[in-house]
Amino acid sequence: xxxxxxxxxxxxxxxxxxxxxxxxDAAIPVVQDFTLEARAAQTRQxxxxxxxMSPDCSYCERVLQEFLLPMQRNAEYRSKVIMRQVDVxxxxxxxxxxxxxxxxxxxxGRNKVQMVPTIKLFDxxxxxxxxxxxxLSTPDFYxxxxxxxxxxxxxxxxxxxxxxx
Length: 165
Known about the structure:
The protein is of the alpha+beta class. The protein starts with a helix and ends with a helix. It has helices at residues 2-25, 34-44, 58-73, 75-78, 104-110, 139-164, and strands at residues 48-53, 82-87, 93-95, 101-103, 118-122, 133-134. Strands 2-1-5-6 form a 4-stranded mixed sheet, sandwiched between helices.
């Protein structure tokens, strides 16, 4: 009996670990260093989408599950935008676009994030490219608003690149 229980525990642990790794691969990374993200954005000529969120926010989870994660899995979006998260309540360190060390919470405050979820799109210099998407008041239209913001930000980044030539 004990052997059966141990075997069951080992199998469950193995399955759970595999599930967690599969889910982790599909997650939007929490940003730790915007200077690294900026280099990637500059090289790839892409905007950086930042989801300002809180882990206990059901609307944030809905935005992640219904909109951002499906977009991230879609190759078309991987060539249109870099997606990252900032936890508005976290004291974890974050290096901002200037290279200064701050916290996730302080960075959200500097960006005047007062409600979650908030999505902002930035260029490689940390300049905001579009109007922020705040809250999730119209889920039926949210995907369209998000697509429009991404397309607008991408056009601005690519136009800026073309103007520098």
